[in-house]
Design goal:
alpha+beta, OB fold (Dihydrolipoamide Acetyltransferase, E2P), 1 helix, 5 strands, 5-stranded mixed beta barrel
Amino acid sequence: MQLEVGTILEGKVTGITKFGVFVELGEGKTGMVHISEVSSNYVTEITDHVKENQIVKVKVLSIGEDGKIRLSMKKLNGDEPKEKPQPQKREPRQDREPRGDFGFQKKTNQPMSFEDMLTKFKQSSDEKMSDLKRNMDSKRGSGGRRGGR
């Protein structure tokens, strides 16, 4: 029997591991079906799909120079999707408010004057500085002095 890539064969399952299934192909040759090639559906337990000593049909995917034979059960039936679905690009939602107060403001159709923007910036800056100062003062006062002086 001549093994070639693309050949469909029947073989006997001789071993099951967590990563794949070993299939005896005859004439002392054994190939392996990787867990990802067992079914087109996600496989968590290989034993849910095949049992030891079961006769299965497989397709030869490749034959390595070292003699390793890669097999597939899912490509045999044309089970595999021809084209991987492309992820859909999502547009950002315009109706959602930003989370938290990060200094963002909702866009309005009315332009602000420079003086209004400067006043708003100074007010925000003063609030943040007082919060920072209050936070630093509370940290300094709670632990006492360090260094043993």
